[in-house]
Amino acid sequence: MTDQCQYLEYRPLSGTGSSEEGGDSDGAGSQEPRAYCTAADTFVQAMRADVCNLRYGLDPETDCEFYRDAEGLPAASPGEGAEAEFDAGGESGAGNTGGASDTGGDRG
């Protein structure tokens, strides 16, 4: 396996109509390469690029719907991938299961 997803490329944002037209922060503006997913044909956020770069135990095969679509894999099931690890330590039953929501009205 490689160090990153086969569909990940880094491209400059120039010419995409980005909101970074001002370029007043560091002068690099839209010339700094950004994560681009060729499977989805779009730039992706840094957090999604973490999946593409196999960071934090994430894997495109189980954690990315763009990869799964491009490879013809079925949709991830709820207990698959990093989501399953998070759910195992997360909350397991939040919500109001008791009590009635309407307190008014008399029904015989």
Account of the protein in words:
By secondary structure, this protein is of the alpha+beta class. The protein has a domain of 64 residues. Helix content is 24%, strand content 11%. It has a three-stranded antiparallel sheet, with helices on one face. About 18% of the residues have low confidence.
- What is the rounded Rg? 22 Å
- End-to-end C-alpha gap: 68 Å
Unreliable residue stretches = 17-28, 91-97
Largest sheet: 3 strands, antiparallel
Proportion of beta-strand residues? 5-15%
Q: Roughly what percent helix?
A: 10-25%
Shape: globular
What would the average pLDDT be, to the nearest integer? 75
Task: Lay out the secondary structure.
Elements: E1 8-12, E2 33-37, E3 42-43, H1 46-52, H2 60-63, H3 65-71, H4 82-89
Keywords:
single chain; alpha+beta; 4 helices; 108 residues
Quick description:
The chain has 108 residues and is an alpha+beta fold.
